[in-house]
Design brief:
Blueprint lengths: L3 E13 L4 H11 L7 H7 L2 E14 L4 E5 L6 H9 L6 E6 L2 E2 L10 E4 L11 H15 L6 H9 L12 H16 L15 H14 L4 E5 L7 H18 L2 E6 L2 H7 L2 E6 L2 E6 L1 H6 L4 H6 L6 E8 L3 E4 L2 E4 L5 H4 L6 E6 L4 E3 L7 E10 L4 E7 L6 H5 L5 E6 L10 E6 L5 E4 L5 E2 L3
Parallel strand pairs: 3-8, 3-9, 6-7, 7-8
Antiparallel strand pairs: 1-2, 1-4, 4-5, 9-10, 11-12, 11-14, 12-13, 14-20, 15-19, 16-17, 16-19, 17-18, 20-21
Bound molecules: adenosine-5'-triphosphate (ATP).
Adenosine-5'-triphosphate (ATP) binds next to helix 3.
């Protein structure tokens, strides 16, 4: 077990700004004499540029912690994981695993096991051998060399029935570990099968088993569940969490799925465009998102955002409604008098209400009844004042959650009130959260 610490980690990839150049080179090479420099040579002569994919990453994963990296596609999650694994080299900063600085260490010296979404099992080996393969190598590198008497006995008994054959100490250790892991993951019955004889979920369990069998200091998992169907994903999700708790192995888990992040992580690091926006336990991310980006990313359906005008001491106005905020906002908001702020409201923090200036008059565009919950997509019924401010809302549609027993239909008009103690505010330009305490 070990902690993983990233200090000011930076990663850039080389790129050539040859998007315009390439076609020209390609074209000229068609016309060029045979002995002209090749396209490849010409391309490498272009000035190299770099694109920075991760910037100023500081993250400390505690010993035994389950840390989830979450963020939209392309934000740099996999790259960060690959940097920890040593599959990519960092461009700046430090990576620590335990008390070792691993910047220059190759992957196999880092004592880390990685699980990918595509399982990466050896197709020609049985489940048993897939589990045993890495182990044999690990034990060999542990210098548990086979004594020569062992070797002799193995050779002499090779032709005998299986029960009578002699096995080496190392092979017995491997066998013990394989069977333990198979029991833990409930794949004992599958040990003699080939990967092609397994379902997706079973393959994923074998891939997990392979990582566990090596008993590494750290597990790195890159979207390991994304090839599974919804039901199996939920089951395997729970199983991974349970296993991780049992083993207590420090884990960094990458996903773009916020449900996975919220249900699995001790803490979650939310990433966007190569930077970490916030690191916090799941509920804290939900209750106290540090930025508008985090607020929108965590929670399903996402938080609604409305531009409102703030008037000290405690009132906000929107073309469609106005309301007075609880006292606790007075202090923090006094510097924003007469400014536009972004009001954030989660779908679950609206309530069906009565006509009043502090309530929102909306029309139902869509109803989604999901048994336990009913979600509405609603739009404002235009009431006339300051329509320009409404136009600055990215979308004029709000997502609202109402009790499932409430009968509503498309086209119906409703009044909604806000849970005043649940409001969020963000600075208009920077998107930074303003907290009332
Ligand atoms: N070898 C590479 N060379 C150049 N650019 C790269 C390389 N690997 C990744 N990138 C770029 O780095 C950015 C981050 O990629 P990364 O795979 O880490 O994102 P991600 O958050 O894991 O996305 P996804 O969820 O889609 O897998 C992307 O813009 C990607 O195009």
């Amino acid at each position: 077990m070990a902690q993983v610490v990233l200090e000011n980690v930076y990663k850039s990839f080389p790129t050539r700004h040859n998007e315009r150049v390439t076609p020209v080179v390609a074209q000229s090479s068609l016309l060029a004499p045979i002995d002209a420099p090749s396209v490849v040579e010409k391309e490498t002569q272009e000035p190299k540029q770099t694109v920075s994919v991760l910037r100023n990453i500081n993250l400390s994963v505690a010993d035994g912690e389950f840390m989830v990296l979450v963020g939209p596609s392309g934000c740099g999650k996999s790259t960060l994981l690959r940097l920890i694994a040593g599959l990519e080299k960092i461009s700046g900063g430090n990576v620590w695993v335990g008390d070792r600085l691993v910047n220059e260490l190759p992957p196999k010296a880092r004592d880390i096991a990685m699980v990918f979404q595509n399982y990466a099992l050896y197709p020609h080996m049985t489940v048993y051998d897939n589990l045993a393969f890495g182990l044999r190598r690990t034990l060999r590198s542990d210098k548990q060399r086979t004594p020569s008497l062992d070797n002799l006995l193995v050779r002499v008994t090779r032709g005998l029935p299986k029960q009578l054959r002699y096995t080496t100490a190392r092979e017995r250790a491997v066998d013990d570990r394989v069977r333990n892991v198979a029991q833990l993951l409930q794949i004992e019955a599958l040990l003699n099968r080939l990967p092609k004889q397994l379902s997706g979920g079973q393959k994923q369990r074998v891939a997990l088993g392979r990582a566990i069998a090596r008993n590494p200091q750290v597990f790195l998992m890159d979207e390991p569940l994304s090839n599974l169907d919804a039901k199996l994903r939920a089951e395997t999700r729970a199983q991974i969490v349970k296993l991780q708790r049992q083993l207590g192995t420090t884990t960094v888990y990458v996903t773009h799925d916020q449900t996975e992040a919220m249900t699995m992580g001790d803490r979650i690091a939310v990433m966007n465009q190569g930077q970490i926006q916030q690191v916090a336990p799941p509920l804290e991310l939900y209750n106290r998102p540090a930025t508008r980006f985090v607020a929108e990313f965590i929670g399903s359906p996402p938080m609604n955002f409305l531009p409102v005008q703030f008037h000290a001491p405690l009132s906000i106005t929107h073309p469609q409604f106005r309301c007075t905020l609880p006292d606790r906002w007075a202090n923090v908001l006094q510097n924003y008098d007469q400014q536009t702020l972004i009001l954030g409201i989660r779908p679950e923090h609206f309530h069906l209400s009565t006509p009043a200036p502090e309530n929102l008059l909306v029309q139902i565009d869509l109803v989604e009844a999901l048994g336990n919950d009913t979600y509405l997509a609603v739009s404002f019924v235009k009431q006339g004042i300051q329509p320009s401010l409404i136009a600055t809302t990215a979308t004029n549609t709000l997502q609202v959650r109402i009790p499932p027993d409430q009968k509503v239909s498309i086209g119906e008009q409703l009044w909604l009130s806000l849970s005043l103690d649940k409001l969020h505010f963000f600075e208009y330009e920077s998107g930074k959260a303003i907290w009332s305490d």
